Amino acid sequence: MNIRTIDIELINFFHRISLPIARFGLFVVFFYFGLLKVIGLSPASGLVQQLFEQTISFISFNSFIVLFGLFECLIGIFFIIPGFERVVIPMLFLHMMMTFMPLFVLPEMTWSRFLVPTLEGQYIIKNLVIIAAAIAIAAHLHPLSKSRFG
């Protein structure tokens, strides 16, 4: 077997598993971190509470963190169900807008100095990889049929 054949086989293998792996990875991250919020064990709770106190005041923080965690769990579940991409991707981008806010609203918690993120800042910046995975999943969708949606 020559290097070109191995290369083609690897590319074909990765092509076959890329979407299921991306879906599963997004499920694990969202469901797991969401569940930690729901059961009160999230290491991100302090950051979420600080952001909550600066932006939201119409419900209690305890209610919000549970609802936010359930929202994350739902995003995770929807990523593993084929056919829910058009529902979950807008949910993901809404979530990402909220999770990127501390970089701007709470710079003292997310930056140790100019362009040097704290651990919390790194936790947020890594969400760019989540966005990339979601875009890759969306790129594999088939266009909606004209007969159903004009």
TrEMBL record:
Keywords: Membrane, Transmembrane, Transmembrane helix. The keyword Transmembrane helix applies. It comes from the Bacteria. The chain crosses the membrane at residues 21-39, 59-80, 87-104, 124-144. This is DoxX family protein.
